[in-house]
Amino acid sequence: MELTIFGIKNCDTMKKAMKWLDDNGVAYHFHDYKKEGVPEQRLREWLEALGWETVINKRGTTWRKLDDGIKATMNTEKAVTVALENPSVIKRPLLQNDSFITAGFNADEWQQTLK
């Protein structure tokens, strides 16, 4: 699988991440949740590999708007349902290829991972 960056085009963090990839000559495919939806199988892979606590962005407005009961009882299966219904609750960006999955943008980590 080629390197794919998953997220939302208008997100500032996504813009920084894609600029970093471009500036470092890293080829990638951009998957926009708003236009293409969230691929459920990939979402399940992310949750299995990283845990819902990493994949779900608990600092964003989408998380804060969720019902307190949902937040209090969040688990992997609920994370699938919530993320499919509200893609903006997924931490951005998610970067994936055949050998790794990472959530969030950290230039230093990406430099090490993408060498």
Automatic annotation (TrEMBL):
Instruction: Write the protein's name.
Output: ArsC family reductase
Which InterPro entries does this entry report, sorted A to Z? Arsenate_reductase-like (IPR006660), Thioredoxin-like_sf (IPR036249), Tscrpt_reg_Spx/MgsR (IPR006504)
Q: Which family does it belong to?
A: Belongs to the ArsC family.
